[in-house]
Design a protein that fits this description.
There is one protein chain. By secondary structure, the protein is α/β, with parallel strands linked by helices. The chain contains 15 helices and 21 strands. The longest helix has 19 residues, at 322-340. The chain binds flavin-adenine dinucleotide and nicotinamide-adenine-dinucleotide. It holds the Pfam family Pyr_redox_dim.
Length: 479
């Protein structure tokens, strides 16, 4: 084996997470190879975060202008310009061309290999390129699996044969179909129902439970109501039993309860499957690692039962979000660099080399209409965890900064407080243009800021952040 085939670190998968991990190990002085079999930049750049947010943003801006007297009167059209929205989306997906990201990888000093990577025993990876040629590379210190996730397809009769859209097709579609049926009630379903309704498509959401069931109930309720007001059909607590595409190309779906609906396309938005089926974990002789399953890791992102294999991002399913995956990548990259240099590891909770926030403070914004921003635990999750809680709510429309920002503003904010420790463990806010309220909550939870001290964090008047003061007043000042 030539020295060209020996690296300090090998990273499999050049999504946002793999790129960040490789960047950290290069900064740690380690020669690092990053391997990608599709587009450098991964799901987030081309088929997830960026194109989906671009699809949503124009309608959100129009909605914001419509809600301000004086601005509303200046709007001439009744909906967004569909062609312009799709063109803007294309540019945010870099026209599915990864040359910009490849340039960044090169500038960061990371070596890049194109091809499918598979572990072949400890510290060894075999890369198969598009022509079928193979190259064997070894890692002196670590291999990191950052292979992400793909859409889960539930076992519904006829669904696979009907060739459903997944998150990829719905975020990259070149035309807006006349009608869309979306199976699922999570973040992808809700965001894409919001986007496509605004683009003039007739949308039906079929959720087997509530919408956004992992969040506070008032979030899913507000989003369902707004979707319905915008013309979408929202079927909650409804199963899909059979799907078929007829000779004309239309999709017919049988729903539990014997209802049938038809649509031009069906979208499956029923969660994610980690891409670990074909990365060779079966070659390691470790019974607890099963191809296709999320990789189990400790808080330094070291795969359990090994001292050289790491995993981060969706491949672990710890918190399948770009920002959390990149946070894990920073912890893992720094842990690999420290271990390689023989430096001590700081793996106490909130230490330098751990991803503690995954357990306590995962922020997420669902860019629906209204937006839902949340971090930490819901009231139910805190109670289930045995935390003695105090829960307070406040109506957003009563906040001066919110009302001046938007006519007829509505929404709700909730604090979940650990009554014993007197710190916030959960925050949710639902309303238009609330996303930027979230980071204050994340800082407060991570910092475990005592409620008594929070009374000294004065929000500027008249901003939406005054909701913090109102929530504290609802809670009462500790004496
Ligand atoms: C529609 C949608 C919208 C989303 N919106 C948001 C959002 O707004 N905010 C947010 O935080 N998160 C969002 N997410 C989640 C986010 O996209 C993922 O959490 C994130 O992409 C995970 O990054 P990753 O690097 O772990 O995986 P990926 O982005 O999937 O990257 C993995 C890379 O590994 C490559 N790969 C896989 N196997 C191999 C192999 N064997 N050899 C070589 N290469 C391989 C893949 O080709 C891919 O490029 C969204 C998800 C979806 C589906
Ligand atoms: N703005 C954002 O941050 C954002 C946006 C989109 C996606 N994401 C990430 O992507 C991940 C995937 O999103 P998602 O919406 O696909 O997953 P999800 O876990 O949010 O929701 C899955 C939905 O599918 C339903 N479902 C699951 N199995 C089913 C079945 N067999 N039949 C019918 N319904 C079924 C669930 O009840 C749920 O409503 C999310 O967990 C999130 O982390 C984030």
């Amino acid at each position: 084996m030539s020295s060209d085939d020996q690296y300090d670190v090998i990273v499999i998968g050049a999504g946002a997470v793999g790129e960040n991990l490789a960047d950290r190990t290069v900064q740690g002085g380690l020669r690092t190879l990053l391997i990608e079999h599709e587009l450098v930049g991964g799901e987030c750049s081309y088929w997830a975060c960026m194109p989906s947010k671009a699809l949503l943003r124009s309608a959100a801006a129009l909605n914001a202008a419509r809600a301000v007297g004086g601005a509303a009167e200046a709007i001439s059209g009744d909906r967004v310009d569909v062609a312009a929205v799709l063109a803007r989306r294309d540019s945010f997906a870099a026209h599915w061309d990864d040359s910009g990201q490849v340039r960044w990888v090169e500038q960061a000093g990371i070596d890049l290999a194109r091809g499918h990577a598979r572990l072949d025993g400890a510290r060894t990876v075999v890369i198969t390129d598009a022509e079928g040629a193979t190259r064997r590379v070894t890692a002196r210190h670590a291999v990191a699996v950052c292979t992400g996730s793909g859409a889960s397809i539930p076992p519904i009769e006829g669904l696979v044969e009907a060739e459903p859209w997944t998150s990829r097709e719905v975020t990259s579609a070149k035309e807006v179909p006349g009608s869309l049926a979306i199976i699922g009630g999570g973040v992808v379903a809700v965001e894409m129902a919001t986007a496509y309704t605004a683009l003039g498509c007739s949308v039906t959401v079929i959720a087997r439970g509530r919408l956004l069931a992992a969040l506070e109930d008032f979030a899913g309720d507000a989003v369902a109501q707004r979707l319905q007001e915008s013309g979408a059909r929202v079927l909650t607590h409804t199963g899909t039993t059979r799907v078929e595409r007829d000779a004309t190309g239309r999709v017919r779906m049988s729903l539990a309860g014997c209802d049938t609906i038809e649509a031009d396309e069906v979208v499956v938005a029923t969660g994610r499957t980690p891409r670990t089926a074909d990365v060779g974990v079966d070659t390691l002789g470790l019974d607890h690692l099963t191809p296709g399953d999320a990789l189990p890791v400790d808080d330094t992102m070291l795969v359990t039962g090994t001292d050289w294999l790491y995993a981060a991002g969706d491949a672990t399913m710890r918190a399948p979000l770009t920002h959390q995956g990149k946070y894990q990548a920073r912890a893992a990259g720094d842990a690999i660099s420290a271990r390689a240099a023989g430096r001590p590891i700081d793996d106490a909770p909130w230490g330098t080399h751990v991803a503690t926030a995954d357990h306590r403070a995962v922020p997420q914004v669902c860019f629906s209409s209204p937006e839902v921003a949340s971090v930490g635990l819901t009231a139910d999750q805190a109670a289930e965890a045995g935390i003695p809680t105090r829960v307070v709510d406040y109506a957003l429309g009563r906040v001066a900064g919110v009302s001046v920002h938007r006519d007829g503003a509505e929404g709700q904010a909730r604090l979940v407080v650990d009554a014993e420790r007197d710190v916030i463990v959960g925050f949710t806010v639902v309303g238009d243009e609330v996303a930027e309220l979230l980071h204050a909550a994340t800082v407060t939870i991570v910092g475990e800021v005592p409620i008594a001290r929070l009374w000294h964090a004065v929000p500027a008047y008249p901003t939406a952040s005054e909701v913090w003061l109102r929530l504290l007043e609802a809670l009462g000042r500790p004496s």
